[in-house]
Predict the structure.
Amino acid sequence: MIDADVIIVGAGPTGLMLACELRLAGVRPLVLERQSQPLEIPKANGLGGQILELLRYRGLLDRFEAACTGPTNPAPRYPFGGIHVDLSPLAEPPLRGLTLPQPHLERLLDERARELGAQVSRGHEIVGVRQNDTTVTADVHGPDGPYQVTARYLVGCDGGRSTIRDRACIPFPGTTYPEVNRLGQVTLADSVTRLGNGDLDVPGLGRVRAGSFTRTDRGVFGFGWLTSEILMVSTTEDEVRAVDDDVPMTLTELGDSIRRVLGASFPLGEPRRLSRYQFQARQADQYREGRILLAGDAAHLFPATGVGLNAGMLDAVNLAWKLAAEIYGRASASLLDTYHHERHFAGARTLLHTQAQVALRRGQDPAAEALREIFVELFADEQPLRRIGALIAGADIRYPALDPNQHALTGTFSPDLTLHTEQGTTSVAELMHTARPILIDLADRPDLREAARDWQHRIDIHTAKTDHRPADAILIRPDAHIAWAAFTDEPADTAAPALREALSYWFGTPPKATTHGAD
């Protein structure tokens, strides 16, 4: 019998990110992964979206950028439903990406989790789960035989075919699409000529345009340049049989798929990365069943590329501090339920735009072509371009507020304000490195600082000035979302009670003075 605070099932990016965040909060997680070794199959070729801002707020973005295998600039072109969203005209794109294959990402997160003291056990498979009012127990089969582990909570981060979700009897409704997508990062074959504008002259095919999709009756082919030497080649075909993403794809399989789609061979050079996947649109009815919770692909699957890792890792960041508050007895009665409410809402937003992409890309008739042309025209204008970029990134999420009349910042991801304090200049991002909740007084409001005094052992309180302050004060949760904000020059008789209400809701009833030291 082994004890832990939280059992995390699955050592993918979501599970490892959750372990990191729990350790920052002082919680003891145990990560159990059935695979004995990390998979080298790159199910994702990069990381993008709002999670990059969160990593910057944790002080980790430089470390992740240093491990990239390609450019780290804001994503200038992003696939969207068979067309491309070109963000290069925007001075500050709402979406950026890192060329960081999933095996590299998992190694970084594994290293970080172990540095923080998390235990990651590979080759340990969950074979049974049961829970009561106070604990959850997992039956595990490990390299040395069977054993049990008991914890306060268990989180299933074990992917789209989650056994934890099945054992918790959580429905996972949705659709499996017949599209099978194959991706390859390859060098340029000797028989293929690169033209000055990046297009290719392919024997038997002629000129093939870079950065565009070729549609035939048999599927879709596309290619673009990752670097001056590496191509990203993709195909999409409808297939009746299901595919197993865990079976490695070969270069021959990719070449055969291209031949079926284009009706001719497309010579491929040396493979650097090969992957295959089938699209599904699914979302768990609930992300929590008692002491069992779901995150990442176990909670949602999206029918488009480039969004799953972002959504899953943000699930982890939202959940970790709430679990910690519950474990340490600092949570309000409804705090842990907000994980489902907020992240199910965010998942539904991601499903919205990814299912819209299905409608855009699957149509093959003139009406579908006309629809894609209209979207291309819309994306030529800054406002729709900026809005769709934020939607893809998950940067447009505003979690539902306690009061619909609250400040517009409430529920949003905190802007990275430059802060001038008596100790010097800092920023919101720097203050968030420790994942502690913070109250920032931006208008020298002693009344608000006094209102928060009873929570001073649970939150960090700062007084600072900033240019063009958006509010008199902001209360920021550990996941960098704003829990409450005071309107500019808001009277104390409304601001102070509202602050105390928010503090109680998000960070629990204030401890008694006699227990401050232990708290």
About this structure: DSSP finds 13 helices and 29 strands in the chain. The first strand starts at residue 2 and ends at 3. Confidence is low (pLDDT under 50) at residues 513-519. Residues 337-362 form the longest helix (26 residues).
